[in-house]
Target: Tat pathway signal protein
Amino acid sequence: MSTRWLAGAAATMAAAALLLPSPASASASGTRSGGHAVPGAPAAARTAPAAPATVAKRLFGAWLRRDRAAAARVASPSAVNTLFSYVYRAPDGFAGCTGNRCRFTHTSVRVPGGLNGILMIVSGTKVTRVYESRHLTRPSTAAAYLFSAWQKGDRDRGLEVASTAAVSSLFRTKYDPAGVTYYPQGCTAEPKGFSCAYSYEGGAMLMHVTGSRSSGYEVRSISYIAD
Model:
């Protein structure tokens, strides 16, 4: 069984503080900070669809309370299942939203991958997908997970188990299902971790994996060799 990080009281309080709306956001939505309607606020402001950040924070709050029923009201079943499987302590920072992509990040815990926490994809009034830092206990599993993400063209999935540099290097070229065939050759120990090879006609791709069974493995970098 992998080692799980338990959220302390301070971490929980810090994460919960992320959910409190600022006075500015309350005013913009036609409510006071206590949740009461502001007299004279335009009806459109009071009935406007919730912003992605609001939806994401509702799901995050339900998760902190371990309330699956509340989470199901604001997220798809797959998003709920993914979030409730998170093995690390709750992220303690809200990195905001870019469009419909909202991130909660760690500032005091080191986790594998470049995602550094939780990414929620919001569509309308629900979170439709959740990406999260993964705890993988085998180097070959980390390499295979990244390779699968590349096949799917899904950078966010890749960042769950690989550094930003590794993902950028791999995704510089789009995977071509009609192109060369890659053959997994397993992983071998190297001075700072493991090298997991995928051979193809004319060369090989090496995924350099670091970490441990307890902390989790991640792909740190990628290199190529030619025959």
User: Anything to note?
Assistant: The radius of gyration is 21 Å. The mean pLDDT is 86. The beta strands are 93-98, 101-105, 117-123, 126-132, 183-190, 193-200, 203-212, 216-226.
